[in-house]
Design goal:
Helix content: 25-40%
Distance between the termini: 71 Å
Family: Belongs to the glycosyl hydrolase 3 family.
Structural class: alpha/beta
GO molecular function: hydrolase activity, hydrolyzing O-glycosyl compounds
Number of domains: 2
Pfam families: Glyco_hydro_3, Glyco_hydro_3_C
InterPro entries: Cellulose_Degrad_GH3, GH, Glyco_hydro_3_AS, Glyco_hydro_3_C, Glyco_hydro_3_C_sf, Glyco_hydro_3_N, Glyco_hydro_3_N_sf
Number of strands: 16
CATH superfamily of the largest domain: Glycoside hydrolase, family 3, N-terminal domain
Number of helices: 16
Keywords: Glycosidase, Hydrolase
Length: about 525
Amino acid sequence: MSKTEEPQCIYRNSNEPVEVRVRDLLSRMMLREKLGQMTQIERSVANPSAIRDLCIGSVLSGGGSAPFDGASATDWADMVDSFQKAAIQSRLGVPILYATDAVHGHNNVYGATIFPHNIGLGATRKNVIACAKHFIGDGGTDRGINEGNTILSFDELERNHMEPYLECLSQGVSTIMASYSSWNGRKLHSDYFLLTCILKGKLGFKGFVISDWEGIDRLSQPHGSNYHYCISASINAGVDMVMVPFRYNEFMDALVYLVESGEIPMSRIDDAVERILRVKFVAGLFEHPFTDRSLLDMVGCKMHRKLAQEAVRKSLVLLKNGKDPAKPLLPFDRKAQRILVAGRHADDLGLQCGGWSITWQGSSGRITTGTTILDGIKEAVGDETEVIYEECPSPATFVGQGFSFAIVIVGEATYVESMGDNSELTIPFNGIDMVNLVADRVPTLVILISGRPLVLEPWLLERMEALVAAWLPGSEGRGVADVIFGDYDFEGLLPMSWPRMVDQLPLNKGDQSYDPLFPLGFGLRTK
């Protein structure tokens, strides 16, 4: 009889309190098994022997890291279950946490519903663990640079950036990821005050803190050059699990040395592993380690797409409606004779979904299943209405057409992280020229597809009749048509202040010189 089968293994008894199970399992673990639990490795280097023999705590898929191109939900479940089988064959049978960046739906899986905001879907409902990120202040870095420096007093940091985490904690979030960024020059991955004193101490967080992808490597220059320091500084600061993700043997050997030499106290290791095990027990992984195959057919199902469509409707923000507010352009008449729809973003599912969609950076084109905004417009109008689509209209487009109105859809390319760093924030792809051309000839609604506010020059804003911020709506573009044709009213309110120019950034309500183009919480209605 193996140790994991012995009746006295309290941690195997689901009727025992979680804390009792955690302490029992921890007491049975050898040092390397504990350190294995603190290690997260990438799917591409994961193999059954490593997971089993090293007691690896977590396996993840980085952006676009699928079992193979076009892999179905079943293929993903097969992969996860193969890793899990190896984990439960380890000496103590501790299951892995499988991690993926489900940033807006299970966006790595072809055919899954892609939402306009952070809603995670998996092949199971009960064992999904949320990760709040990136703690803290990465949205307030100087000049908005990814992995930059947030220059604020603690009071300002707490006032402007802490509230979302308080909400997540109140909802029972289990894991929190440290930010690549710095606070007043100190990397968050090595900030003991914020990770331990504030998050775990003052806020009482009982889950575990995880690093970002090679996040600890960034504590030395060149990245990872002083790996022992990177590991020691981050673990001692309060990082519990490290997203290694590739050189896990080197990481674990170094961590063993640091513990045995006393640079990282055993009490810190035990605290980290307790937190990780607590999350696994609460999630029910020991009782239900494998994927729930009964739910596979629901991935990308009609119910999920309707929910995503509703999310699109509710996220749209109406910023302008009529040059004269007494004569609004919206909602549109669906029985109009002829409508011009313009711009590459009107009929491009990839641009509509943005980054973290099938691949890490995202891409243009019909990358998955769904409806574009143009598809939605064509479905919404009456049978007698002619919809003419021009990706790049010219003056000749308007000759003899007599358009009732135009819908110009412009926005950004796909990006994530540092690829999105932009010191200008103007509308790309000649979007400004297109808006100017069309709005000079036809009453025009401009729909912005972007992951952030873009700079709108006063003369350009004056040209357009109406303006909608649609953000990155995901795979269900018909949700946009639902609102602009009046089936539903606008509900969205700006979740941030919209600057007049990039020199105003960062821009927060309450700043002494607060003068946005549109203030925090702004949003018009049509009814």
